[in-house]
Amino acid sequence: MKFETIMLGFCSVLAMANFSSAETLTIATVNNGDMVRMQKLTDDFTKANPDITLNWVTLEENVLRERVTTDIATKGGQYDVLTIGTYEVPIWAKQSWLLPLDKLGDDYDVKDIIPAIAGGLSVDGKLYAAPFYGESSFVMYRKDLIEKAGLKMPDAPTWDFIKQAADKMTDRANGVNGVCLRGKAGWGENMAFLTAMSNSFGARWFDENWKPQFDQPEWKSTLQFYVDLMKADGPEGASSNGFNENLALFQQGKCGMWIDATVAASFVSDPKNSTVADKVGYALAPDNGLGKRGNWLWAWSLAIPAGTQKGDAAQKFVSWATSKHYAELVASKEGWANVPPGTRSSLYANAEYQKAAPFAKMTLDSINAADPTHPTVKPVPYVGVQFVAIPEFQGLGTTVGQLFSAALAGQSSVDDALKQAQDAATAAMTEGGYIK
Length: 436
Description:
By secondary structure, the chain is of the alpha/beta class. It contains 19 helices and 11 strands. The chain has helices at 2-21, 33-40, 43-48, 61-73, 88-94, 115-119, 143-148, 159-169, 190-200, 217-233, 243-251, 265-268, 311-321, 324-334, 345-348, 351-356, 360-369, 393-408, 414-431; strands spanning 23-30, 52-59, 81-84, 122-123, 126-127, 130-135, 137-142, 177-180, 255-261, 280-284, 298-303. Helix 18 runs antiparallel to helix 19 (414-431). The protein is globular and about 60 Å long.
């Protein structure tokens, strides 16, 4: 009896010790499809790590950026794992706001990460965020509608061809818009698209001396072309549409073309969710013959704020969510076509993936076509394809995005929007000490 009592007491102490050592990780993430899917698969992680529980905070893209930025800048400590992009990583790492990811495990295989993606997430050779999925942007189009229009989509189209095709595919009576493009204001929403587009028109945010360039003809050509194209061939209310809104329109058969993130390919080609799954073709983002295409380079990645008290547990989760094992898990549940793309070279060497994902080669070609160190036709003092990698860009990019969204909505003219953008950028650069 005495022995049993002792053993019961010992077991109770052990149970209490295990309970007290359990950790809850709070993970801030974006409401994109791949992240929503990850949340449904986390039993695989918690079974292997019963001492770790997961608390999800899932937010719309613009809200996520605002909250995560505020929290890390003020050392709020709300989150243990952050979903952040290629823009934030080098800036925040240099501020010592992120932990280096040096405990991902022996079998993680960091060298398998596509070099272009890994380079944007590293500082001084150290990885500060692990890519959950990587992307560029390209043209997704309806093969049946382009054929009906009597056209053939080139693998590398020009903007003039896109305009010609959009005009012919637009069929308002049947609810078909020739082209769907981002219009929702935000530095990572409409300005991601428009900045990448502007590169192909020869535009740039700043010259070599950080003088804003919105008063130059290249930006006038970019914004005027975009507004005219969307008014003629875009959906109603386009100034409110971001990635998710345009995805829904395309899946419903309401877009002849959609130029957006390569990660969308698995969703538009999924017969369970897309009414046009068997009709989608892919092409590189358009150009104007100036040597730059209108495509971006991005990764939604998982990072760990330096202020967390749960760094080791957080690295376990980041390792799981961005591993080869996770790719195989998604493939077993959802099929190879739905594996998060754009992060690992091994995925693109996988014959099963190539067979299941007709967009695989065009995705990799698009990623490799982007050059964040030389993003523009003319020289610039910054890096970043669809963003400018300086701290001021987040606020300035959103301000300019609001001005350009208003021009799309017809609330101001293209000329007025560009003048206000020039004034806002000049003020921000002056205040930041870039120009005097």
